[in-house]
Design a protein that fits this description.
Structural class: alpha+beta
Oligomer: single chain
Helix content: 25-40%
Radius of gyration: 47 Å
Distance between the termini: 132 Å
Strand order of the largest sheet: 25-24-23-22-28-27-26
């Protein structure tokens, strides 16, 4: 029984003490005045009566009623029912404060509680003050409170003749039962009657209609997210204008959470004065008046539910985890069926008559029933995961969270994880875990209905029926007696509040009320307590759990076979069949990824322990440990599948004898797993074992014989399940428990039932027994933990770093540690254990602290007495110390074991001059995200992981090793990259593939697209690893550029020498400037530099180090050169001659070739030359980053250049870099403009200001300069009129909308533009292979491009057809951002083309993403090409390539149409360089040769100052700026063009890759430093061709290429057959671009192929005949992708033939001919071949009528006289004139002629071969056979057909007597000329032959004759 009301309080308005406008509440009276003993008076009631503040009101509002909830310090809730009414203020009260209040109230929010019907004002100026009647109760009977307070108000207003004191007294003395479904009628003595019904069960919440209302206000999705938010401990705030709605919403949300209780702050109505509570850090559910919405907006982590607006706002930083699927969607659909039953019928053609919609109260219960079912599904089987730790004196129950999640298959689920970790669930376990207690609806549901719920899942109607049944029960609980007598309570009349109240609410007589209360109290004491006995029972456990989600992925399809493998392997190990076991081991380790296999392993090993086979020999021990490690490697820190729990007893059982008295147990070898350092794991294990022992205490001994307490985990049948701990406990979840075993919970329930009947002594005895059980287990676990936490070698500090919880907080960052775990560790940290452990390596101290924390926690939770606990604390250090001493002996002995045979380290081959900095550190190379090497889905062997060593040299980081998988074979795996290419190095913690130990690792990523992901072997100490990192860093970022490999190699530069003082620079520059001009003149007079003759070594020697005496080999000697010693010595007199052939040669030779070169400082020279070479920058005074000689217009004086340069960034003023030979248009380059430059000039008004400043004058200079450029172009010298570029639609260059007046590129009438075309465009568009658009490329491409047809297919801008005949003389291509608001002068002859360009930082960011896409660090989440393509797209690399190509093609078009172009972007050294170089490459075929490309790079990239060192971050200073691959991007563009025009380039794609690799490798000096100025300063520029007496290293990449090209055609493109004066226009759409294989390919056999000396492995052994005279052995071998180099394994036919030729020549003892000479001869022969008789159709490769797209593939078919033959494009006749003359060349008749000079099969030599008809022997017909003339073996052999390898017959030439013309015999081919017959007469017979035509017959006769004469 309980009091209906504890206190009655009268609160009135009182002025604020500080005199502010607001008033405050004052308690006028409270009854009873003394506090009840069991329930003190709650504080702060006056705040809660008027939550919006106490204010006076100008009108009389109707009375309001709401219930506020207060929570006291014991978390008891007090319900305060408040009825507020308004009374006129007495004049005495009206002070200044009241006045303020009135004003304030007029503008006050309508949000006050009283904004109900429109109130009517009283007399003018009259104010009304609120007064509140409050009832405080611990019971929640809202209607009773409303009626009772209403009655008191009615008596007062209506003036009824009833004593208010009596009514209040009766109210305070009314007593009602708490629960049990009884019914009670009460009266307050005013002729009233009320019936109170108590609920059947007090554990179920009472919701009335609140849940239904909540769903109506917010909707299903919003309520579900609030539900999840409240469960996962987020902050929830409700807003509404109604207080009653707020308290209903909060009540509804709490009702949904049942059976969990909300244990955080709960304030349904929060008063305005307490709003700061909202910024509390703890979770809450709070309601606030909507008037304070603004304050709610500022809260960053609060979920705001607006009840009036129906919205829920979740802040960005808050993530509410959703319910696990399928529960989320199921719940959603059931809710919609309950709330909107019409929905199901809405689509029916004949809807049934409307079903009756349930009442709001009933609907409320149905909604709650849905959530009750949801909890039953979520928590089903939870009782099987309860650990009973103590039974007496009070039950202590713990929940095994990991086992629960593991068996439900929901370990990854965020929602359930958070719920189980929350406070609400902890309360649930302690309240509902108790085995013997009253049960309620939820217990029944979770125990008995789970099966039904699973069966109903897919039947919505059955689910709905179940929901309705549950709803009935919930409704019955709230309303046990539906037919109750009606309440009878007086109410005030209508609008009674407006009547003038007779008097203020009277003051009650305290004495009288107190007397009534005392009377009742006396009566109560006499009456016996009416205690209704609770019905306590054993709580049913229900069926064991099943997975919510069907487990996928965990079990493999063929798991039975895998389990078989595991069992076999273990039995082999124990039977000692080690070889068999070794074979199976890789399969077992793979199988152990599956859960079933790990369980199986634990079971099998367990059986062997039981058969006492635990002592093993060394090999067995190694095998068992390795398998255990593999099992544990995949255990999370939670060990949700109980694998670690099952292995724990085994690791302390298996052991090996090391020496007499020294035994090593398995635990010393399986310590490196995160699970052992997780406190939660140990707690769960401990409680499991304690439960087993406690259960054993109470079961009779007879029943318990088979109980074997070894396995403490929650395997299979769960932990609280039928807890026999025999190995049977390892069975799968879901098996029925054995019948006769009672679970620990059953035992506990039985004991709790008997407890009251036991005698005191017996009770004491049981308590002591239980406590000693717990205590002994604690000692046992202290031992176990010390076993697994103390490392074998206690000096190792790695253990501490990797063991979260053993000491340092840095462990929380360990990738394997979950947040919850790190959190729980952090809670219990004591202050001493900061980082000292790591420093002093106090392993023992850390372990003692860890164990002590564990002991503290479990013992206090299990109720161990403090004395026992102290005893434990004393014991722990001794246990640890003892164990350390044991381990020392074990460690000492284990060191004496013979070491496991590790593979010996393979030493890498080094370049000459490359030195090892750190010798091999043993590492494992682990597979990264690339699948090929790891035997991924593409198949192939698992080359990775590999074990070997990593070497650090002055040039590279190299890994060499062998695959760990023994089945792969002994392939050597090599991965390396130049140190200089390192872009990112990060430490990782990874498991070694063999022993599954957790080791330190490094992940190194390089910009040559290589990734080394390595784990250090355990023998590598952390100091060695650290040293490796430091050395690597030192080599990667030397303090000074002289420390780089290219500069230290073979020179006496000491790496760390400080740069020279600047005073030395002066003289060197003066000398330089004098020489520069002289030498440039010489260069121009001399056409080309002659090169020294060079004879390449034979092919045999290719892979071997060159012999000593061959001076010009690619050998490197380390002799010092005097010229390298000091920067100033670069200009010794003896060296001056070299200048002509050096740096300036690149520019000068090219300028001369282009006809730009006149060197003149005086103007006396003829004016005919429009441009001159100016030496104005020879001292590098005007612009440091430009070359010394520049091309400027003839008319501009040198002194003006200085002023012009000021307008441009970095002083990079416009200079000419190329001139079109045909249109004479020039290409200029410069830096971007400063604000005052052309842009300023265009922006300024044309009227100059009176006093011109210097800036203006330089702007004018600049204008003059541009004018000079325009005038120097022949066509425009006298041109005038408007020229505008039209038709280049801005769509090409990003979205750009020009301002109306700016003269920028605009699109004029496309029809007019295309009509005005004069000629078809010269040049050709790129081929796009297999694009299926063969017919699309008509000759007149322009008409489509001009915009008439669809948008241009190739993304390239339109060609010259779109340009009007009148064009600007000069187009300035500038950055759109710079040219904003430009307004050009109408008379100007230049025009601006603003384009959007990307910045260097965007290139850098894009490259980083590209690198991650091509060499990912870890496998993609979804394997397959999609994720690669997605990340490739995200990188935007191809989009940047597309933009570059697009701009370049635009410029090419402009130049081709005769307009000059100035490219003026950024600082003029990144994108400008890319564009300018690409334009020249596309426009000028010379740059597509090897020589030309070299010149292009030297001129545009090196001389014009692209900042290679800065962009490549070559030194320590550049480390922060990072790597920006501008040059690589240019090479990628060239590669894209190469792909589309394979016949236009003399160099091969390999050449581009080679440059891409070496421009970052720092092996050569070419790509070091940022400008010529810096190179001269360091003395690098003139030494390269210096004194050549001594052989020296190739310091220049070009020299290296040149030498290498003499030996091998690797840089040469055989398909090179250029068309004259060809302008290329590549497609640039992203869809036409291909990913460069430089980014994705790798060769694990030999590392990158770009260091040629290293890449050429030992030559293939020549095919020998076997000694026994059998057939030669086959030389076939398997070529693995990503392992072998395909070009080497399968060289293309031509390289193969050239190699074969060299081999043969060597065999014949001739000096081998150069491959280039042989190749040129072949081509010449091929060209001449068809000329004498023009019988073939004209089909030369240079015929321009061949369709372009086919031509650019380089192969086409033609019809010849004899069938169809294939013609290969091998022609490279640069000198042939027009395409017409060359088209006369006839096609070759047969492909055989291509091979006429050389053709090799494996063991034969073919001097001449072809098809001949041969007459058979007597009476046999003529047959076409393939004949081969072999001069070496002196034979004429014949085969059935060309591909036939089996010789059909041989004519020995030694027997031939004569060769004579023949006559046609019977049956000869009819179509053949009779002169094509000839006979060969031998000593045995005469052979009749017939060739295909006369010339070939003649050739055969000649060839045979020459063979005979040779002999």
């Amino acid at each position: 029984m309980a009091r209906l009301a504890d206190y009655f309080v009268l609160v009135a308005f009182g002025p604020h003490p500080r005199g502010s406008g607001e008033g405050q509440g004052q308690i006028l009276q409270r009854f009873p005045e003394k506090d009840w003993e069991d329930n003190p008076f709650p504080q702060g009631i006056e705040l809660f009566c008027q939550p919006s503040g106490w204010q006076l009101c100008p009108e009389r509002n109707p009375p309001t009623f709401f219930v506020a909830v207060l929570t006291d310090i014991n978390s008891e809730r007090h319900y305060c029912a408040c009825l507020t009414f308004w009374e006129p203020v007495e004049p005495t009260q009206e002070g200044p404060c009241a006045q303020d209040g009135a004003e304030r109230d007029e503008e006050a929010d309508e949000g006050g509680p009283g904004a109900l019907p429109a109130p009517t004002p009283g007399p003018p100026g009259q104010l009304f003050a609120p007064k509140t009647l409050v009832l405080v109760s611990r019971l929640d009977h809202v209607e009773v409170f409303r009626n009772s307070l209403g009655l008191i108000y009615t008596i007062h207003v209506e003036g009824l003749n009833v004593g208010l004191e009596n009514v209040v007294g009766n109210l305070l003395t009314c007593v009602i039962p708490l629960a049990g479904g009884s019914q009670r009628t009460i009266s307050l003595g005013a002729g009233d009657r009320q019936v109170i019904q108590t609920p059947l069960s007090d554990s179920l919440p009472i919701s009335r209609c609140s849940v239904a209302l909540l769903f109506r206000q917010l909707g299903i999705t919003n309520v579900l997210s609030l539900f999840c938010a409240a469960l996962t401990e987020h902050k929830v705030l409700f807003l509404s204008r109604s207080y009653q709605r707020l308290s209903d919403a909060c009540r509804g949300l709490l009702a949904l959470l049942f059976p969990l209780r909300y244990s955080f702050t709960y304030v349904p109505i929060l008063p305005a004065q307490l709003l700061e509570v909202l910024s509390t850090p703890t979770p809450f559910i709070i309601g606030v008046n909507a008037a304070f919405q603004a304050e709610a907006q500022e809260l960053l982590d609060v979920i705001v539910a607006d009840l009036d607006g129906g919205t829920v706002t979740v802040p960005e930083c808050v993530h509410i985890p959703p319910l696990p699927e399928p529960l989320q969607s199921q719940t959603h659909s059931i809710l919609s069926m309950v709330l909107d039953p019409e929905l199901e019928l809405a689509d029916l053609a004949f809807p049934p008559p409307t079903t009756s919609i349930s009442s709001l109260k009933m609907q409320d219960k149905e909604l709650r029933a849905v959530f009750l079912r949801l909890f039953a599904q979520l928590l089903q089987g939870y009782r099987w995961c309860l650990h009973t730790v103590r039974i007496h004196p009070e039950p202590v129950i713990r929940f095994h969270k990991a086992a629960f999640l593991g068996q439900r298959g929901l370990v990854e689920d965020d929602f359930l994880m958070k719920v189980l970790e929350g406070m609400a669930f902890a309360g649930f376990v302690s309240e509902r875990g108790v085995p013997y207690r009253p049960t309620d609806l939820f217990d029944e549901l979770v125990a008995h209905e789970v099966v039904r719920m699973r069966a109903d899942e897919n039947h919505p109607q059955r689910v709905l029926r179940h929901v309705k049944e549950l709803a009935e029960q919930l409704y019955k609980n709230e309303n046990p007696y539906p037919a109750v007598a009606m309440h009878k309570v007086q109410r005030p009349g209508e609008a009674s509040h407006l009547r003038r109240a007779p008097r203020p609410f009277p003051r009650l007589d305290e004495g009288m009320v107190q007397w009534i209360v005392d009377q009742a109290a006396a009566k109560m004491q006499g009456a016996p307590p009416a205690v209704k006995a609770e019905k306590r029972t054993t709580v049913p456990s229900g069926p064991p759990m099943t997975a919510i989600v069907e487990r996928s992925g965990g079990l493999h399809g063929n798991s039975a076979r895998r389990l078989e493998v595991v069992r076999n392997c273990i039995s082999y190990v124990f039977e000692g069949k080690m070889l068999e076991a070794k074979k199976l081991l890789p399969a077992v380790l793979r199988a152990l990824k599956g859960r079933a296999a790990r369980r199986c392993l634990a079971q099998e090993l367990h059986l062997h322990v039981q058969q006492s086979r635990a002592v093993l020999d060394h090999q067995q021990f190694d095998f068992v440990v390795r398998m255990m490690n593999c099992c544990l490697q995949d255990c999370t820190s939670l060990d949700e599948h109980g694998i670690a729990a099952a292995l724990l007893p085994l690791v302390t059982a298996f052991c090996r004898k090391l020496s007499p008295g020294v035994t090593q147990f398995a635990y010393s070898c399986v310590q490196e797993h995160v699970v052992w350092s997780t406190p939660q794991f140990w707690e769960a294990m401990f409680y499991g074992d304690v439960q087993t022992h406690i259960r054993a205490l109470y079961l009779e001994a007879a029943e318990d014989q088979d109980s074997f307490s070894v396995c403490g985990g929650s395997l299979g049948c769960g932990v609280g399940g039928p807890g026999s701990r025999s190995p049977v406990a390892l069975r799968q979840a879901g098996e029925a428990p054995v019948q006769d075993e009672r679970s620990a919970l059953d035992v506990a329930s039985e004991q709790r039932r008997l407890w009251p009947t036991l005698s005191r002594e017996k009770q004491q005895e049981l308590v002591q027994k239980e406590e000693s059980t717990v205590f002994s287990q604690a000692i046992h676990y202290a031992n176990r933990m010390s076993y697994l936490l103390l490392p074998l070698d206690s000096s190792k500090s790695r253990l501490l770093r990797e063991r979260p919880g053993l000491g340092e907080l840095e462990s929380a960052s360990n990738s394997l540690v979950t947040n919850s775990m790190a959190g729980s560790v952090a809670e219990s940290y004591d202050t001493e254990s900061g980082f000292e452990d790591a420093e002093t390596c106090d392993v023992a101290g850390a372990v003692v602290r860890f164990i002590n924390r564990f002991v503290d926690k479990v013992c206090t939770e299990s109720g161990v007495t403090s004395d026992h606990l102290k005893g434990l604390h004393v014991m722990v250090p001794d246990i640890v110390q003892m164990h350390i001493e044991t381990l020392e002996a074990v460690h000492r002995e284990s060191k004496r074991l013979p070491p496991i045979q590790k593979p010996k380290l393979l030493r890498p081959r080094l370049l000459p001059g490359e030195e090892c900095v750190l010798d091999g550190l043993r590492v494992y190379l682990l597979p990264d995200g690339r699948e090929e090497g790891a035997g991924g889905p593409g198949g192939g062997p698992a080359l990775l992981p590999a074990e070997g060593a990593v070497f650090l040299t002055t040039y590279r980081v190299i890994f060499t090793g062998m695959p760990t998988d023994p089945l792969v074979g002994e392939q050597v795996v090599v991965r390396s990259f130049p140190v200089a290419a390192l872009t990112k190095e990060k430490r990782i913690s990874v498991q070694t593939p063999v022993d599954q130990l957790l080791q330190d690792g490094l992940q190194l990523r390089s910009c040559t697209f290589q990734l080394l992901k390595m784990a250090f072997d355990e023998e590598v100490g952390s100091d060695s690893a650290e040293l490796f990192r430091k050395q690597l860093h030192k080599l990667r970022y030397p303090p000074d550029i002289r420390g780089t490999f290219a500069l230290t190699l073979g020179s006496a530069h000491t790496p760390g020498r400080p740069p020279r003082a600047t005073k030395d620079k002066g003289p060197s520059f003066r000398t330089l400037s004098r020489n520069l001009v002289k030498n440039a003149k010489k260069t121009i007079e001399r056409q080309y530099v002659t090169r020294k003759k060079y004879s390449p070594p034979s092919w045999e020697h290719r892979g071997q180090p060159p012999p000593e005496d061959q001076e010009d080999e690619i050998s490197v000697s380390e002799e010092l050169e005097p010229s390298t010693l000091t920067p100033s010595s670069a200009l010794k007199p003896s060296d001056r001659m070299t200048m002509s052939s050096l740096v300036e040669r690149a520019c000068c030779r090219d300028y001369q070739r282009l006809g730009l070169g006149t060197l003149s400082s005086s103007l006396s020279r003829a004016k005919s030359e429009p441009f001159r070479i100016s030496p104005v920058n020879r001292m590098y005074a005007i612009c440091r980053s430009y070359p010394g000689l520049l091309i400027v217009p003839q008319s501009v004086q040198d002194n003006a250049l200085q002023r012009v340069s000021r307008c441009y960034r970095q002083n990079r003023f416009p200079v000419v870099c190329w001139r079109s030979g045909r249109s004479k248009a020039v290409l200029l380059r410069s830096g971007g403009l400063h604000g005052k430059g052309v842009v300023g000039l265009f922006k300024a008004q044309n009227a100059p200001s009176p006093g011109q400043s210097q800036a203006d004058s330089s702007s004018l200079e600049q204008e003059k300069y541009l004018q000079a450029v325009v005038s120097s172009m022949p066509r425009y010298a006298d041109a005038s009129g408007r020229n505008t570029l039209s038709g280049f639609s801005s769509a090409h260059m990003g979205s750009h909308v020009p301002s109306p007046r700016a003269r920028v590129t605009t699109l004029s009438n496309p029809m007019a533009a295309s009509a005005s075309r004069r000629t078809a465009p010269r040049g050709k568009w790129g081929s796009v292979r297999a694009s299926g658009r063969s017919g699309g490329l008509s000759t007149d491409v322009g008409s489509r491009l001009a915009g008439v047809g669809p948008p241009q297919a190739n993304g390239a801008p339109a060609d010259p057809g779109f340009l009007r005949p009148q064009r600007a003389a000069l187009y300035i291509i500038g950055d759109k951002a710079q040219l904003k608001g430009v307004r050009p002068d109408p008379l100007q002859q230049w025009e601006l083309v603003p384009i959007e360009v990307f910045e260097a930082r965007q290139v850098k960011a894009s490259f980083k993403k590209l690198l991650k896409a091509c060499v990912p660090g870890c496998p993609a989440t979804e394997p397959g090409p999609a994720s690669f393509l997605r990340s490739l797209e995200d990188s935007e690399w191809l989009i940047q390539i597309h933009k570059l190509l697009q701009v370049s093609v635009l410029v090419v078009e402009l130049l081709d149409s005769g307009s000059s172009v100035l490219v003026s972007l950024e600082d003029g050294w990144d994108i400008t360089t890319q564009v300018v170089s690409l334009v020249q490459l596309l426009s000028d075929p010379f740059y597509r040769t090897l020589e030309g490309f070299r010149l292009l790079v030297e001129k545009e990239w090196l001389s014009f100052g692209h900042r290679f060192s800065h962009r490549g971050a070559h030194t320590l200073a550049g480390q922060s700026s990072g790597f920006t691959p501008v040059f690589l991007q240019f090479l990628d563009c060239v590669h894209q063009i190469h792909l589309q025009f394979p016949m236009e380039f003399e160099f091969s794609p390999f050449y581009l890759k080679f440059l891409g690799y070496h421009h970052v490798s720092r092996r050569f000096r070419t790509f070091l430093l940022d400008s010529d100025y810096e190179r001269i300063e360091l003395g690098l520029l003139y030494e390269e061709k210096g004194d050549r007496r001594a052989p020296q290293a190739c310091r220049s990449v070009w020299e290296y290429v040149e030498r290498l090209s003499k030996r091998t055609p690797v840089f040469y493109n055989y398909m090179y057959a250029p068309e004259d004066a060809e302008v290329l226009r590549p497609y640039s759409n992203v869809s036409n671009l291909k990913v460069w294989d430089f980014y994705t390919e790798e060769t694990l056999a030999e590392g990158p192929p770009y260091d040629w000396e290293l890449a050429q492995g030992p030559p293939e052994p020549p095919e020998e005949e076997r000694p026994d005279g059998g057939a030669p052995q086959s030389r076939r071998r398997v070529v693995w992708p990503c392992y072998d180099s395909q070009p080497r394994a399968q060289p293309d036919a031509i390289s193969r033939l050239l190699e074969e030729m060299q081999r043969l020549e060597t065999e014949l003892g001739r000096p081998p001919e150069r491959w280039k000479d042989a190749w040129d001869r072949v081509k010449a022969a091929q060209r001449l071949e068809g000329r004498p008789d023009g019988r073939g159709t004209p089909g030369s490769l240079l015929v321009s009528s061949v369709p372009h797209h086919r031509r650019s593939l380089g192969v086409y078919l033609q019809e010849g006289p004899v069938g169809s033959t294939l013609s290969l494009s091998l022609d490279s006749d640069q000198s042939s004139g027009s395409s017409v003359s060359s088209s006369r060349q006839a096609a070759r008749r047969s492909t055989s002629t291509l091979y006429s000079q050389f053709q090799t099969a494996e063991s034969e030599n073919r001097s001449y071969e072809g098809t001949l008809y041969k007459k058979g022997a007597f009476m046999k017909p003529w047959k076409a056979r393939w004949f081969v003339l072999d001069k070496t073996k002196h034979q004429l052999r014949y085969y059935d057909h060309r591909a036939d390898t089996e010789c059909k017959g041989v004519i020995d030439l030694a027997e031939v007597e004569a060769v004579a013309p023949g006559t046609p015999a019977m049956g000869a081919p009819k179509t053949v000329d009779e002169k094509a017959f000839f006979d060969v007469k031998t000593t045995r017979r005469v052979y009749n032959f017939c060739a295909q035509d006369v010339p070939s017959a003649q050739q055969w006769v000649d060839q045979i004759q020459s063979c005979l004469s040779d002999a």
